[in-house]
Amino acid sequence: MSTCPDESTLLAVAIGDSDAAALAHSAHCRHCAARLAQLKTDLGALRGVLVDAPLPPSVRRAARRTEWLSGLLTPLAAVGLATALALAVVWPRLAPHATPETQPQLASLTADVTAALFASREGVGLAEPLSDHAYVVAALNGGWPCDSRYGNACSYDDLLDQ
After folding, report:
1. Is 61 left (phi over 0), alpha (psi -120 to 50) or beta?
2. How far apart are alpha carbons 45 and 51 in whole angstroms?
3. Residue 4 contacts residue 25 (beta carbons within 8 Å)
4. Rounded distance, CA 59 to CA 64, Å?
5. Do 137 and 162 touch, CB atoms closer than 8 A?
6. What are the distances in angstroms from CA 30 to CA 1, 7, 33, 97, 117?
């Protein structure tokens, strides 16, 4: 049975994050010392490529684009916040208020809007909706109910009877 440490333990020794026993073993065992030296060489090459080498042009362009955007977002957020705050303070003072002269007009407008939004078929004289059968027949014919463009002109009462 071998007492040599595995690769993950040797990696910990190489980066200085190991226990004293693994460090002492790698210092006295020729096989582990060679493995550790090769691992340190590989780590140095990786550091040279990943840390010390210049970034590729596409990454540099993306980094510049991100820096520009992040530099722009902070002032825009500040302007937006100041605008929202100003509107919250000023807007209520600018909004029109109901006066005794405008009360009848507002009451009439409210009644008209209420009648339009909450109208019933009986009160306003709205027609009954078409039955599903009329839509199915029209779809099979390739058109819409009562659409003369497709040659199926009809009266509304004909569609309700189907």
Report:
1. alpha
2. 10
3. yes
4. 9
5. yes
6. 17, 15, 5, 92, 90
Separation of alpha carbons 152 and 138, rounded Å? 8
- Residue 91 corresponds to which amino acid? W
Rounded Cα gap, residues 38 and 28, in angstroms: 16
Which residues 6+ apart lie within 8 Å of 127 measured at CB? 121, 156
pLDDT digits (tens, 9 = 90+) for 60-97: 777 676 776 677 788 888 999 999 998 888 877 776 67
User: Which pTM does this prediction carry?
Assistant: 0.35
> How far apart, in Å, are the Cα atoms of 80 and each of 70, 72, 83, 92, 116?
15, 12, 5, 19, 37
**Hey, what are 75's tokens?**
């002032």
- 77: exposed, middle or buried (Cβ count in 10 Å: 0-12, 13-18, 19+): exposed
Q: Decide: 10 and 32 in contact? Cβ < 8 Å.
A: yes
Task: Single out the residue of 51, 39, 50 nearest to residue 14, CA to CA.
Answer: 39
